[in-house]
């Protein structure tokens, strides 16, 4: 037997109008304009509209000069072509072949890579160490250190280079007198001259790393560092296992920026070693390109060196970012 409740008609849930029309084979009514969720990517053009003025300026300041640099590197472009005495001819990769057959180019390239690597490592080490120090000193010493660092950062490269040349002068410089070095000339030897330039480059560059890393450390929750300290971790272990991993996106930025800055050093080398040192022993790629383009009037070779530098910096940056992405790091 069936119970009365089994025989009772079941209440039907009313169907929505669009569902009923769809079930009957009709088309569902369209949503009114401006209602309902936005489709994916509907507002994707808005950020680009805000960025358009800056992109136009950057295009004029970067894209067109790079285009001209690459174009000249494929031409025969010397003083004769500049003055109009001879026509400009297309050389293809001839300038690059000439450059790569030059033994001095490879020597300068190796010196540039080693010098830039030493500058980057020293700058990052000093900047990170001073950033940690800023978090542990009182307000007044912190303010004094910040002002001194920002003063070094704001100093023009040519001014800082001239000051360093005076400080390390063999006759009148106070450094040789304080350390009892007599008339030792820092700019005479190849390695001593590179060391002197490295000190000036680091002096101008470490404030950027220090301020950026200090801001990143202050953004880390204090509970995390306190918990690591309570667990008995040393300061070095806290930095290596807690602080540095959380600062990795910031460290990526300052590392890439330091590589770009230190690889294309020009002013410090040109001023402090008087154009590249004795017999060109302190040449780097930027100074080497300047000598080829303006001292020898081989503008096409100078442009080819500039293109090679650009490609090297792009390759280093892309490889560095790719390695981080393979490790699953958030950038």
Defining traits:
single chain; 331 residues; mainly alpha; two-stranded antiparallel sheet; 69% helix; globular
- Adjacency order of strands in the biggest sheet: 1-2
Rg result: 31 Å
User: Helix share of residues?
Assistant: 55-70%
Average pLDDT score: 84
- Tell me the number of helical segments per DSSP (H or I, 4 or more residues long): 16
Measured by DSSP, the beta-strand proportion falls in: under 5%
Largest sheet descriptor: 2 strands, antiparallel
Find the count of extended strands (DSSP E, 2+ residues). Answer: 2
Structural class: mainly alpha
Shape: globular
First CA to last CA: what distance? 71 Å
Encode the helix/strand succession as letters: HHHEHEHHHHHHHHHHHH
């Amino acid at each position: 037997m069936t119970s009365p409740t089994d025989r009772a008609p079941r209440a039907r849930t009313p169907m929505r109008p669009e569902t009923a029309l769809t079930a009957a084979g009709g088309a569902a009514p369209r949503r009114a304009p401006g209602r309902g969720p936005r489709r994916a990517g509907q507002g994707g053009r808005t950020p680009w509209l805000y960025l358009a003025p800056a992109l136009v300026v950057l295009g004029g300041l970067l894209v067109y000069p790079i285009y001209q640099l690459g174009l000249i590197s494929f031409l025969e472009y010397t003083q004769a072509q500049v003055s109009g005495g001879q026509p400009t001819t297309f050389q293809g990769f001839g300038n690059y072949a000439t450059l790569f057959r030059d033994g001095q180019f490879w020597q300068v390239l190796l010196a540039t890579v080693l010098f830039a690597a030493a500058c980057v490592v020293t700058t990052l080490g000093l900047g990170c160490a001073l950033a940690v120090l800023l978090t542990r000193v009182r307000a007044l010493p912190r303010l004094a250190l910040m002002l001194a660092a920002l003063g070094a950062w704001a100093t023009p490269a040519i001014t800082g280079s001239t000051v360093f040349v005076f400080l390390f002068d063999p006759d009148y410089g106070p450094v040789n007198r304080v350390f009892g070095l007599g008339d030792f000339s820092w700019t005479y030897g190849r390695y001593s001259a590179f060391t002197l330039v490295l000190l000036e480059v680091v002096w101008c560059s470490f404030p950027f790393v220090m301020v950026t890393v200090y801001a990143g450390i202050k953004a880390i929750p204090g509970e995390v560092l306190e918990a690591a300290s309570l667990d008995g971790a040393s300061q070095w272990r806290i930095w290596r296992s807690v602080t540095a991993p959380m600062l990795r996106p910031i460290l990526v930025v300052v590392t890439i920026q330091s590589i770009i800055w230190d690889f294309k050093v020009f002013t410090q080398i040109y001023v402090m070693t008087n154009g590249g040192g004795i017999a060109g022993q302190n040449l780097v790629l930027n100074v080497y390109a300047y000598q080829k383009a303006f001292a020898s009037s081989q503008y096409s070779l100078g442009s080819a060196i500039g293109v090679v530098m650009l490609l090297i910096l792009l390759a280093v940056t892309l490889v560095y970012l790719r390695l981080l992405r393979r490790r699953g790091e958030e950038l």
